[in-house]
Amino acid sequence: MMVLIVIIPFSGALICLLMPKRMRGYAGLAAAAATCLTVFLLAFIPGGEDTFHHALGGWGRPLGIELQADGLSIIFLLLTSVTAFLISIYAGPYFDSPREQKTADYHFWTLWLLLWGGLNALYVSSDIFNMYVLLELISLAAVALTTLKEEAEALIAALRYLMAAMLGSLVFLLGVAFLYAEYGVLDLGGLGVQVQTTLPTITAFGLMVFGMLIKTALFPLHFWLPAAHGNAPAPVSAILSALVIKSSYFMLLRIWFEIFPSITTYAAAQLLGAMGAFAILWGSFQAVRQERLKLLVAHSTVSQIGYLFLLFPLTIAQITGEQGASWNMQAWTGGICQTVSHAAAKAALFLAVGNIIHALGTDRLISLRDIKGRLPLSVFTIGIAGVNLMGLPPSGGFVAKWMLLNAVISSGQWWWIPIIVLGSLLTAGYVFLMLGHVFAPSRKAVVLQSVPPALEISAFALALCAIFIGFTTSGIIDLLQMGFHTMPMPEAITWRLP
Amino acid sequence: MTELDSFLLYALTAVILFALGLSSLLSRRHLLRKIMGLNIMSAGAFLLFISVAHRNGKVFADPVPQAMVITGIVVSISATGFALALARRIRKKTGLTSLDYREEPSPENHNRP
Amino acid sequence: MTDTLFDMTLCAALILAAWRVLHSSDHFQAVVLFITFGLILALAWVRLEAPDIAIAEAAVGASLAGVMLLDALRVMRSVGKEHEQEKRWTSVAKLPSFHLFFSFATVLILSVVLISAVTELSDAQGGLTDLVHAELEGSGTKHPVTAVLLNFRGYDTWIELGVLLLAVLGVLSIRECSNLHSLAPPVATTIVLENLVRGIMPLVLLVSGYLLWRGGFAPGGAFQAGVVLGAGCILLWMAGHRSLTMLHDATWRILLILGFLAFLALGSYSLLSTGVFLAYDRQYASIQIFLLESAATLSIGTTLAGLMLALQPLKKDLPR
Questions:
Q1: Backbone angles phi, psi at A364, to 5 degrees
Q2: Which domain holds residue C193?
Q3: What is the ipTM of this complex?
């Protein structure tokens, strides 16, 4: 039953709140495993007609709220479950170890399970006000998780994050107000068929897209991200960069392709793509300049997000009505592959970096040379994650960029080619910067804190997932083919493979 | 006719409030002004919803936007309470009342883990 | 005609108050004007036939937010406090003028766009009013807003209770305490306030219960009752009473999650019995709704009071 993917993490959160501190880790891990299992059951066990559709309270739209899962939902749900589960395995021993005791662990599991439940609920929601409330839930939980490290930089970054998130939500809410004023309905399907090109509708479109752009930290609205992701405890950084960012991107996809396909224009798509291009270049440029490891990885997130926005200009043909354009499917596969593989690789990277910082006791890039051949698994994880981010075979990142390049060439928008290539080069820049420091000689003899094996193994597993994505492309295409058929769509959007 | 005028009046007030709140958020440095700006922005959004509810109403005013606004008020106070707690903590820890700061380079900072 | 004049005055007052909140130089003045803004807004809600929201706004938007802001202002203004770290942070004096120009331009363009969009909004079509009207009979309550909040769109209400819970948990983690027992005892206050609160508290409880009961057929309901309850608990603390800190830790936690838990429990029960999450029994709907609302009232009251109380001085921060 689809609702279980929301009920289980929320119940787990409540249980963790009521339990004594020693038991929380186990309860949390159990809830994480249960949620992950439920998502897999939902995705892979064939069910009846009603498996992917649920009218809450028995009230159908537009009066009530309905849950609907389509191909895109399933992809995001699977990505969230696997990554979240592995991060949960990491989090338990992380917060128990003596060095991290100064990080307050008062309510990590409750906050995290509430966040996860919110993510799951968002991916199957089909009501725009419900999505607003869920976005607020997710943001508030994310900010609360960021404040777990009690240092001043973390708190300042958290407040900036909170205000940026609230700004994004409020702008989105105003867009919802305009849409309701014009059309009187709140559900995605109903809006999709009724939307016309009037000034209030275009205003709503602009507002909602802008709100989501702030939350997804697209250049130049990324000002809040590096400090927030760079100053959080390691598992929280992974959660933020891998999962929370993807949720607002998911909303953007819903807004663009479900509600407003009849009014998006070529120019708007190119604008989003251009901002993505700036993000790719600026993010990697800033990453190379960093002296602190976590900030480097955080700026890398800013850069990698840019690739996600190339999806919009490359799929515009689908919206303007050219049937059967083959590059649509390539662009979609590329974009989704990039989303999934970035989530896994970035989580792996943050976790491995967390291990190294835990062992060395410092965040500075130069201190990496003091590892001197120890911690091989974590360093290897960084290497694999880096391979994925750079887009080298045989990783998911390679498939993503390959598909995107194919789509670019087929659709004739050749101006994205230098951006993609340059982006990969700059990414290689900061990945090799990290690895270079690891292999550089050092005369200091530093005693390393021991890292619990669970931490290293979970990070490595995530990196392997990123590689594995490269081999599951056909599965992704099948899921995408499920398309948005569960929601009525205008005739222009139909899928056809060449 | 007066029905429509009253709607237009409140709706225009709503968007003006939204813009005023936004300008407070963007241009004032002090954290409390920013937080108050966010609250005024949400008041503007809510006002737009309720004027639509009033316009839509026949036997009774449209209850769905009203329910949405009640939810919105609760969400807004939660976020405001949390933001104020953060602002207070930042003030106590660093003495700052705004988020624009310059960190003093000091000899201890370079070698600090 | 007088109606329109009243509306215009109201809107002008709103805009003026908001303008002054933005532009007044004194922070205290800004906060007081913010409270005034909230109260005028409550009047606007009444004018727009939204009494439920008027009650919520007056209690939450004006009072609770105002009290929290005043308390925060006190902290922001305190001079000569010992800061925990050595002073290595200096505020940047002014925002760069590029930043100011850019924000001014953005707001101007946005205002123009929004105003034009509003003037071009299509005419009334009734929205979802008709649907609510049609289904109100069997929904278990006679008040349309309660029906929407608790029945038709109860899922949103459930999530929103989760947001409240998150906020109080977040505040507690920042304060580095896991429950209210780490708070220093409340400061004894003047005899006038003490006796006033002593007289008012029973009224507060009565009003809260009345609002809760009334929500079944008239404006009122769980939120309004909850905020009045929360305000009462805060008032108790300010009068020197130990208020919520009297509660056992486990009791307090259970109260915090009670609303969220009640929705979850009912929803799961209906999922098991009818296969639909959060569906009400046709016969017992009004009883079920009342139970959910009572649980929500207790939660909302405890959580909102907790948001304020958790910010009070801790035992360990008191000077020896």
A1: -75, 140
A2: 141-320
A3: 0.94
